[in-house]
Each structure stands twice: as C-alpha cells, then as structure tokens.
Specification:
722 residues; Endonuclease, Chain A; polyphosphate kinase like; eight-stranded mixed sheet; 27 strands; globular; disordered N terminus
C-alpha cells in the first residue's frame, strides 16, 4: 500500500512534477472519442427518473411525484445548462464541448432529445399515471367532465377566490406586449370586439399562489381535481365582458436564470448578488411550451414577441407544467405511497436509559461514529450534536459551513443560541448556492444580527464542503469534535437524500479543520492536511495518486480495485486515469446517480470498468471513494463529485475513514449496489442505460434502499431487546 500521510497532504513536495509527468504520459494512447456528452448524459439521467414514473409496481402517488421531479429537473436543466450553451454561442465563446463538438451542434441534439422526452413525459401522465390515479379514487378532470351542480359550485369558488387576483393584460397600440416571467403558466387569449369587429390579444397569468389543482366540491367517495387554468379558461367571459372569445391556449416560458457574478470586480458580494438576482428575472427566453392545439396565429405572435426560434417551441398535450403534481402527490392516502419509514437514532447516539438524553460528546470520544441518512436520523445526530454544543458551557467555539439549509432551520437557530450564550461562532454561508441565493442572504443577515461571525468564503470559489467543528474545554485542555458530511445541513432534504456523516474526536481531523476554516475565514494558506483531501489545491492530485497507485499494483500482479460513488462523473482527467487503470487490469466500479461521461466497453480501454446507477425512493447523494483490497482499502467520504467545478472551482473536502467497521459498512454497501442481483440501471457500450429490476424468471431484484432500511431497523430492534 502507499503512504497515506503523503497522499493526504494533497500536494506532497518533491514528487509532484514526477507524478504529473507519469499521469500525462500514459503507456497506451487513449482513443479520441472516449467521452459521453455530458448534456445528453444528463437527459439520460432524467429519463431514468421518468422510467420510475412509468413503473406500474410503484405506488401511484409516488409515480406522480416522479413525474413532477422530472418536470422540475428539466426546468433547471434549461435554465442553467441550455442557457449556458446559448450564452457561449451568443458571446462567441463557443469552445468545443467535452466530446469535441461545437455547442451549436450539441444544442441541436439536446433539442431533439428534450422534445422526445417531454412528449414521453406528457404521455406517461395522460396514458399511465392519470388513469392509475383514477382507479385509486383520485381523478383529474376537465370542464366537460363536470355536472351542472359541480360547475355552479366551482363558479362560486372562482368568483370568491380566483377572479379578484386575476390581471388580464391587453396588447394593443396603447399596451405593449407584457413581460412574461420565467416558469409562469399563462393563457394566450384572442378576442373580438363585438362593436368594432377588431381582433385583440390578451395575456392572463395563472396566479402561482393559488392551488394548481382545484378540488371539485361534493366528492365523498372520490377526490376530483380540476386544473386551475381550466377553471379560468372557462370563465373568460367574466374578464372580457362584451367581447367574443375566439381562442385561448396555455403557454409557459423558460428563461436563462443562471447567475454570473464577477467577484473580483465587486466590493460587496451580497449587494452584487442581490442586483444579479433582480436581473435573473429578465433573462432571455430559451424555451416556449405551448399546448398542442394552439392556433398558428397565436403561436406566431408569441414567437415574434418573445424572440424565440421554432426549435425552442415545445408543443405538448395539456396540462402544461406538471410540477403541480407535487401537490397531488402529497394527498394523505398512505396506501398510495411508499410504506412509512421513521429514521432510527444511530446506535452510538441512543441514550442509555429510556426517555434519557444521550451524551453525544461522550459517544464520539469513545470512537468515530458513521451515520447513514435518511435511514438513521439527522435530527438525533447532527441537529442534536449542534444543539448540545450550543448549550454546553464547556464548548468555547463552533465553526460550520452552510451551503443550503431549510426554512426555520434548527441548525441556524442552534448557531444563534450559541452566539447569544457568548460562544465564538463562525458560519461560512455560501450565498452563491444556485437558486438558494436569496434564502441564504436572509439567513446570513439573521446570523449576523445575533452576533455570529458570518463569512462568504473565498473569492472565485464556492464553498461546497460539509463541515462542522466544535472546540470544547475538558480538564483544562481544548478538544476538537468534528463532523464531515456528504450532504447539506438541511433537516428537510435529509429525509429524502441518502448521505453519510462522520463524527470524530480525532485530533488530526481537528487540526485539519482548524487550518481549513482559518483559510476560509482569513488569509492563512495551509497546504498540509493529514486525513482530509481538499479542493481546489489538493483533491484532484490526491485522487489521481490513489488511482495511479492501483494501476501500479495491477501491473505488479497485486490485487487492485477502485470503487467510486458520485452524483456525476465528468472530469476528463479523472476519467482518463480510470481508463489507464482499466488498461492495466484494475477492476473499476463506478456508482453514479446522474451524469456519466465515462464510456464502458471500449476495447482495450474500459473493458474492466462497470457503471451502475440507482434511483428510487431516496435520492442517492453520498460520495464514496475506495482504493485497494477490502481490508487495506483507503476509503473516503465527502462532498465532491467528479466535475470540473468540484475539483477546480469549489472548496470540497473528503475525509479518510479509519475505523475498520465503518470501512466494511461502506464497501459492503458499494458491493451490493454493483451486484447483478441488485436492481439498477447498467451503462452499456453504446452509451445506453438499461434498467434491470427483475431476473430471468421475473423475480424482483434486490432494492438496495429497502434492504438498507430493513437492516437499520433490525439493528434498532436488536438494541431495544438488549
């Protein structure tokens, strides 16, 4: 095995140049077309989400939820990734993509695939999920499906709750075409003036603050819902009295909503970000969704006024914007959801006495504690640890990174409580976390008002690492307690996202975090870390060293194995290193949730590489890196995906797991995920993802999330018996 202290220092000193030369001068030339296009790979990921919605074995309201997730995912893809490609084309920065093709060509491929997927998504709703919901007593209806009494009741609702907040905007010489906000649902209305005979156009925004699906009154045995835009469309006469309604159609616009800030040129990051968030609302249009029955006159007017191309128009069956299914997916019908799961308290953090409170500091002093969310509770581990630290008179200081957190967060409140009790509290709030910028600004100011030292990280870098560091006085000495996680400090998403967190009182980790927080909050430049790999200076080289060490082991005839679990695998240098390891005979297993630019099955290059993807009840979010045979493997967990931004433009941290029990838990989980007996999607040599959920006899394969959940519950029951 290699010297882990040298690896973990990130850079080493004398051997850097030699190592770079070894990596950049491979033994065999790699083929030119060896990467999958990252944007098309992302669309393939969202197709896997759609396939869950199409899975008839899943509870029907969970299928509706997956349809909503697909729609939400695709919105963000257009707002950020497609918008970024278009910006590069418009500004002339159209450098080739990771597959060597011009962005304009990739944009055409994206359009073709996105059109196909959106139509498939609409059909999955209309032909599969909606009928299945109807069979279960939850019906989404049209206006023509209603009785006269139901229409009368809904008209009363319209007059009382909807009509007062509607704002029809006419388009004529005195009224220019109105601004259409991004992701808003609208009605395009053509009307004729009964007196003059002149045709006019009006736009009506569907109020986003009202329920998207209006419950039809009087449904005792069945729940029936009418889309809000259908209710409005059938009462346009009340909005335009004396006018003849000629046509009305729903449409929806997506805008470029990525935020770009020149941090080097601004003196106040918060003010610059707030200004940029205002400009986000007015980003250029990049997608227009219209109902398939929209007439040509109306469509041509929208295309002309919005300055959008035919390629950017998506004709779809109604209703548009199926994010609204999130509301229906929350209907309280337990039999139509996944069986309820209550996270258990990690065994090390369970109180010794019933109804007692565990001393988390004492538990962490005994040994490192590895917690697996959402199977084990975030509240009784991370939140409880922070609350105990805030109230403990022996705790002197708390330092924490906050990338995304929830409204009314107990994490934020604990930091405030600690500051008000006179402790030194540092919160590194990443205000540039995409689409959470405004919320993070609010939390930052709330923390500052309470006396918390709030910093915003390093210029030009997002702080994405998940770190919590507590300094406690014990017997006249200072002791460190640390938490390094793979997921955000967010109690809400912790119930949906699969993540790991490591609690440790190891003094070496404490020294590493002290140095890292000093670098993030001040001007200290410390390049020596022992149990951490930190980006952007150290992480890439540390991982490449480990990969290359396994390659050398294989060449020497020693056991060699690389296992990587990430959300995205895009970075070309990491992928090339894995290719070279595969060429040398290393077994390479990659478990990826989303984008994967790596190709399998390239003759003489990636024949030893296996790629799996798992999607299910929980969002697989943890990152695990393991190098070597099981008992001797170097195993890390942390915040970094294998993307350029994570390795080069973010502060990320991986921690080496040292406890043999924890290493075995992580490796056993990984090996289960890669097993042919486990349900997963498998990446083929042609870049296609194929779902394997049953065996040759039609028997369901192992659901890794369900198996993990059951294992944790068995441990809890066993402890209760003891």
């Amino acid at each position: 095995m290699i010297d882990t202290d040298v690896i973990d220092s990130g850079l080493g000193d004398a051997d850097d140049d030699d190592f770079d030369e070894a990596v950049e001068a491979p033994d065999a030339q790699l083929p030119e077309h060896r990467y999958q296009d990252r944007e098309l790979s992302w669309l393939a990921f969202n197709q896997r989400v759609l396939e869950l919605a199409e899975d008839e074995t899943l509870p029907v309201l969970e299928r509706a939820n997956f349809l909503a997730i697909f729609a939400s995912n695709l919105d963000e893809f257009f707002m950020v990734r497609v918008a970024g490609l278009k910006r590069r084309i418009v500004t002339g920065l159209a450098v080739p993509t990771n597959v060597g093709r011009a962005p304009l060509d990739v944009l055409g491929d994206i359009s073709t695939e996105a059109h196909r997927l959106q139509l498939r998504h609409a059909r999955a709703w209309a032909d599969q999920v909606k009928p299945a919901m109807t069979e279960s007593g939850i019906e989404v209806v049209g206006w023509d499906d209603l009785s006269d009494d139901e229409r009368s009741d809904l008209y009363d609702y319209f007059q009382a709750q909807v009509f007062p907040v509607l704002m029809p905007l006419a388009v004529d010489p005195a009224h220019p075409f109105p601004y259409i906000s991004g992701l808003s649902l609208n009605l395009a209305i053509r009307i004729r003036n009964a007196k003059t005979g002149r045709q006019e156009f009006a736009r009506l925004k569907v109020p986003p603050m009202l329920p998207r699906f209006v419950e039809v009154p009087g449904g005792a045995a069945r729940s029936r819902y009418l889309p809000l835009e259908y209710l409005i469309a059938n009462h346009l006469g009340d909005l335009f009295p004396g006018m003849e309604i000629l046509e009305h159609h729903a449409f929806r616009l997506t805008r470029n909503e990525d935020v770009v800030i020149e941090e080097d040129e601004t003196e106040n990051l918060i003010q610059a970000l707030e200004a940029e968030l205002l400009r986000r609302r007015f980003g250029p249009p990049i997608r227009l969704e219209v109902t398939e029955d929209m007439d040509d006159v109306t469509l041509e007017l929208l295309i002309d006024e919005l300055d959008i191309t035919e390629q950017e128009v998506y004709r779809l069956p109604g209703p548009l914007d199926l994010r609204g299914l999130f509301d229906l997916a929350r209907i309280d019908r337990p039999e139509l959801h996944y069986p309820a799961h209550v996270p258990s308290t990690a065994p090390a953090f369970q109180p010794a006495e019933q109804n007692g409170r565990a001393d988390l500091f004492a538990a962490i002093r005994k040994h490192d504690v590895l917690v697996h969310h959402p199977y084990e509770s975030f509240t009784t581990s991370v939140v409880a640890f922070l609350e105990q630290a805030a109230n403990d008179p022996h705790v002197l200081a708390i330092k924490q990174t906050l990338y995304r957190t929830s409204g009314d967060s107990p994490i934020v409140q604990a930091l405030i409580d600690a500051a008000e009790k006179g402790k030194q509290v540092l919160a590194l709030v990443e205000v540039k976390a995409r689409f959470d910028e405004a919320a993070n600004i609010v939390w930052a100011r709330k923390l500052e008002k309470a006396g918390v030292h709030v910093v915003y990280g390093l210029v030009g870098l997002k702080t994405h690492c998940k770190l919590l560091h507590v300094i406690r006085e014990e017997d006249g000495m200072l002791r460190s307690y640390s938490h390094i996680g793979t997921g955000n400090y967010n109690p809400k998403t912790s119930r949906l996202y699969e993540d790991f967190g490591l609690f440790t009182a190891d003094e070496q980790v404490g020294r590493d975090l002290t140095r890292l927080f000093n670098e993030l909050s001040g001007y200290a430049i410390e390049k020596k870390f022992k149990r951490l790999l930190v980006a952007p200076l150290h992480l890439r080289k540390g991982l490449l060293r480990h990969i290359d060490a396994e390659r050398r082991h294989a060449l020497d005839g020693k056991p060699a194995h690389i296992r990587i679990k990430v959300n995205s695998m895009v970075d070309e240098q990491i992928i090339d290193a894995l290719y070279r390891a595969s060429q040398a005979g290393v077994r390479v297993d990659v478990w990826v949730r989303g984008i994967c630019s790596l190709k399998t099955g390239i003759p003489g290059v990636s024949e030893n590489i296996t790629v799996r993807s798992i999607l299910g009840r929980y969002l697989e979010h943890s990152r695990i890196f393991a190098f070597g045979a099981d008992e001797d493997a170097n195993v890390y967990i942390g915040s970094a995906d294998m993307m350029h931004r994570n390795l080069d433009r973010r502060v990320e941290a991986l921690v080496r797991v040292s406890d043999p029990v924890h290493k075995k838990e992580l490796l056993d989980l990984f090996d289960l995920a890669m097993s042919d007996d486990t349900s997963s999607w498998r990446l083929g040599a042609e870049g296609e993802w194929t779902r394997h959920s049953t065996d040759a006899a039609g028997k369901a394969l192992v659901d890794i999330q369900e198996k993990t959940m059951n294992a944790v519950q068995r441990r809890r029951r066993a402890r209760a018996v003891r």
